[in-house]
Amino acid sequence: MASNPFETADILDGIRRWVEIESPTERPDQVNKLADLVASEYRDLPATVDRVAGRDGCGDHLVTRSSWGQDAPGILVLSHLDTVHPMGFIERLPFKIEGDSAFGPGIYDMKGGAYLAYHAFRQICAADVRPPLGITQLYVSDEEIGSPTSRALIEAEGRKAKYVLVTEPARDGGKIVTGRKGVARFDVHIKGAPAHAGARPEDGRSAIRELGHVILALEAMNDLKRGVTVNVGVVRGGTKPNVIAEEAYAEVDMRVPTMADAGELVPKILGITSRTDGVSVKVTGELNRPPYEKSNAGAALYEHARELAGELGFELIDVFTGGGSDGNFTAPHTATLDGLGVDGKGAHTHYEQLYISSIEPRARLLHRLYQTLR
């Protein structure tokens, strides 16, 4: 073993191997290729690896469990193997190092953090003394599309755990995440009546015009002071410029900071009706990630991590963010700490990067959490 078990160059080389296997969510064959590599990393460790077969066009999920501590609630580590970047993106964004930055598709969100959690677990296994709690690491294949095939697994494992650590990337210079907005998605389907736009416009009922009313109603629900955002991100409608549009469609994203906000606004959006005779409006959708509100247990877990970080020589500041993660599924019932991955910037972009200087301190923090949580 190296004299420093958290040697940055060694960890970065491991991250590179994971990054160089591209794993877009929509390519289960590629996600599974990465899962093969991740599973192989555990072969010589005191751990079991269960593979949950993928479905509905998604890849497999991996559940790795320490050989100790599985008879009582322990630590669940949540990571995802999928990325948003399409196949071939690595040619545009190859793994490279420039100064304190290492670049590559998914390196910041979140292969860097997933690898840190694995590496910290490996160092725990190398020690003579086992920590008090068992450690389960769950790697899912579909987080970037809302975890449709892994949510039940995440919730089941989360309910069994005492603590949940999420290896999503750090925010804004290394901040840890102790709260996230809930995410809801809706589809709006509008049906009107077609007609010739020049000769018989009075016979038509424009679905596009009605969609305009719906968009204004949705936009009016935005309340930045409360932290509520409603975004109509996709619209489609009509067939030709000289035809009154018979159909129109929109996709809507809503973010809410509390369950009370969700309870108010989800029914309000689902209840939107047509303002025009002869036009129907149908809205479908739901809250697909509950808000991750900072509970007393979550706050205590953060305070413990903050003290450990101080002992390691860096300040750990927490933040509330609008982006969702798999931590949203566990936070309502289990102490959850998110944003434990690498620091960096550019998630989902052509310049995605991690900061190399963040690798060792954040790997050590995960290691100390594994050692000290009780």
UniProtKB/TrEMBL annotation:
Gene3D superfamilies linked: 3.30.70.360, Zn peptidases
Record PROSITE patterns: ARGE_DAPE_CPG2_1
UniProt cofactor(s): Zn(2+)
Signal sequence segment: none
UniProt keyword terms in alphabetical order: Hydrolase, Metal-binding, Zinc
Organism for this UniProt entry: Bradyrhizobium quebecense
Occurrences of domain Peptidase M20 dimerisation (ranges): 178-267
Name used for this protein in its record: M20 family metallopeptidase
